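Quick start: what a row looks like.
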Amino acid sequence: MERTVQYKDDWGKSGERFLAFWEREIVDRCCIAVYAPSAEALSSPPPTAPPLQTEEELRRYWLDPEWSLQRKLAWFERTFHGGEAYPATTMCVGASAMAAFYGSPVEYRADTAWFHPAIDNLETFDWDVDIENAPLYRETIDNTRYFAQECRGRYLVGLPELGSATDDLSLLRGMQPLVYDMIESPDAVKRGIAALVDTWLRVHRLLFDIALPCNDGGCCIPWMQTWAPGPHYQMSCDFSTVLSPAMFEEFIIPELQRYMEINTYSVYHWDGPDEVKHLDALLELKELKAIQWTPGAGQPPTGSPRWIPLYRRIQAEGKRLILPFVEMNEVEPLLAQLSSRGLFLVTSASSEEEARDLLKKVEKWTRA
């Protein structure tokens, strides 16, 4: 790719490495994103923002696209985007904005947004909702359009996280009631999942088209720092921690299969040891391109020997492996134990010099 990005002058080369990543090939080294503070950031602290106090201030913090973009641009200017790291902006209201489309009351906090239950009875709930006039829908579309219009070659535009159907349903209904519903009213649960998936597909098609001019004909997931040359969306089911493998097969696998009708460069966000029991089912999904691993709070870090057999199984099945929470001292051991083909790491350094030094070392540590 020839295009440059204002805050990343080597985006073209990174694009080549991403293309190779999806083909499980190597250009010159393993795909790795390395963040570091710029020299300016190290020499002067950022201005301190006043605390958010009122409900209106909190809502504006999360939903005002101009304010959000100002914060992002200030961060881009103080950050070295090394390797495959890139600047990107997106509307982020927690991970389940779609729950609000169906009536989940949103509580805005300083560090996140929380979605509260809204469905008393799945058997009688009417899923025929006017989505275009639903809470958060217009903000989801308009904010993405604003970021795209203001892009002007400065950054990539990520798509807002809508959440996956069953995760959003667990917020709308409540986790424990939904477990009971799966046992006592499975058809009602499946109707709800199907309705949410329909909306997921519809909204992602629209968002992809809006952001497309800023993403070199592809799509990105900013928090993972991944890019692909076509539709590329996060799939997940954190709710699956409470499901047996049989229930995962019954309720979640059909949901994932529907996403992959349009999700050409699909990635599954696999979160923590309580989801390990579902790896077999995920690996059997031929259309699933990549698995992203998060160890979870209180667990051994990403580079722990505990996780290496899981990583090797994923690679052995031809899936790409994405590890976005790697410490610098874990990079060399991981590259020594894993194939660099279809492997993507994300880490951070204390300075631009340290980041550039790591990238040179990665060239030597890369192995097929």
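That is the whole record. The longest strand covers residues 31-37. The radius of gyration is 21 Å.
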